[in-house]
Design goal:
Mean pLDDT: 77
Number of strands: 0
Shape: globular
Low-confidence stretches: 1-8
Largest sheet: none
Helix content: 55-70%
Strand content: under 5%
Number of domains: 1
Amino acid sequence: MAIATINAGNIDPSVTPVEILGELEPNEDPPRFRRRVLELVKGERSVTEVAADLAASNQAICNWRRQTEIDAGLRLG
């Protein structure tokens, strides 16, 4: 249910990032993990909040977001 919520773009604020990501580990499928983390920060959650919930660094998430924007042609890089 949480995955469908992300894909639809309607993230329930009461659901934690850990619940949304489920058992997906960063090293298991890094591109998929990063996409899901970025979907969370596109919603109503801050980078700091998501990073704290996932024990990740704010800078890593910001770097992933920046690279995604560069890859999409939204930002020069």
